Amino acid sequence: MICFFAVCKPLSIGISQNTSKKSKDFDPESTSNEDGFTKSIRSLVTSKVYLTYTVAMCFTLPVINSFMVFIIDFLTTNGFESDTRIQLYLYLQLGNALCRFVPGLCKKYIPHTSVLIIPACFTVIGSTAIALLPHAKTYIHYIILLVCLGMALGVGVTTFSMTTMKLVGLQKYSAGLGVLMTLMGISNCFAGPIAG
Q: Which residue ranges run through the membrane (predicted)?
């Protein structure tokens, strides 16, 4: 087999590369700690909307994630056969995959929608689906509730980073997402044992 990257000649596209050094020398001692990460963290701590969003995400998404671990066991306990369990899990994942487009469509066709409304509505839908799943009686009930749960998971994953960026701004995005992901990881560690 011939490696194409070894025999192909690079194509010049006409962009010149600037190799000259800048006249200013960067002195790391001249910048204070307040200009970087610590300033971003301090401003995140003072943002009540961001803190509320972070706490809400740390309490809701781990519940859905921990339920996903036990969904096959839950369906087995309710008497479903192997093929039926896989079909129900497929419906859950179809709801997850198809609803990843919903936040973009909501922002496109309903332009004045708040960035917090979309994940909040679907979190309520997912929480309701989890609460009603133990009381489902028929196969159709399970399909509807699992699709709703998948919808909540798909929208939650899709809006995770975009909502953070809208709340904290582009300058503090990396710090905001880092704090949120760290706290989500910690809350996911506790959600599994709490779920049983």
A: 49-74, 86-103, 115-133, 139-161, 173-195
Is 82 part of a structural domain of the chain? yes
The string of DSSP letters for 116-138 reads THHHHHHHHHHHHHHHHGGG--S
Assess if residue 81 is contained within a domain.
yes
Is residue 17 domain-resident? no
**Mean pLDDT across the chain, nearest whole number?**
81
User: What confidence score (pLDDT) does residue 151 get?
Assistant: 92
What CATH number does the domain containing 162 carry?
Answer: 1.20.1250.20
Q: Classify residue 170: in a domain, yes or no.
A: yes
Number of domains observed in the structure of the chain: 1
In whole angstroms, what is the distance from residue 140 CA to residue 138 CA? 5
- Domain around 57: 45-191
What is the torsional sign of CA 134, 55, 192, 160? positive
182 near 59, Cβ under 8 Å?
A: no
* pLDDT block averages, 10 residues each, the chain of length 196: 47 54 50 65 86 89 82 90 93 92 86 84 90 93 94 88 88 89 90 72
Q: How many CA atoms lie within 13 A of 84 on its CB side?
A: 14
Instruction: Kindly state the greatest CA–CA separation across the chain.
Output: 74
